[in-house]
Amino acid sequence: MLVQAGPQLLHSSRLTRAERGALARLLGPLEQVRSCLWIPDKAGHHRWVNYQVVGILLARTAEAGSAWWGWDQSAWTRVIGPDAQEWSRQWPAHVSRACRPRLLAYAYLLGAPVDEALFLSFERLRLAHTVFGPEIVDREVDTVYRLLRSWGYRLDTAGNRAVRTLIAHAMLLNHSPLLANMDASLLKRLRQAAFHRKGIR
Length: 201
What we know:
The chain is an all-alpha fold and 201 residues long. It has 11 helices and no strands.
């Protein structure tokens, strides 16, 4: 069915009922992830991006001859793109660039073996909002800010965004937005990520 659908896969919203039924085992988990994502506007463009993300995963499944749940880290890095330029080279022009960060969100919630270095190329606060929801993320960020202010730090400077990014990065690495779930080993991983990129932006 994947081979038969061919280029139509990138327009997954146009799959027939019979095609969707045949691909139900692939589509089911992706639909569950979509329902968990926080998206500010679930209509229009954002809905179309979700259809394209599903289409990308189906198209790559057809190309690889193996389902996405069997892909290794290198396969996921390739489909997400190690950078924006590589992303543009491998997908048609009509595929929205917004698919790239959404793909990472899907991979994250699917528990895929994603290279953590990929996070450094994305807006991590936005990614954390997408996978955890803005309410809990912003609440925990505000908790950190209150503590830092009580220590005398000024957070109304250019570094404001960097601090929020760092906290969001910690949440993503820890697979939890809750400060209570963070420990010293996580701080060590954060330092390694910062040195890798010469500072987390």
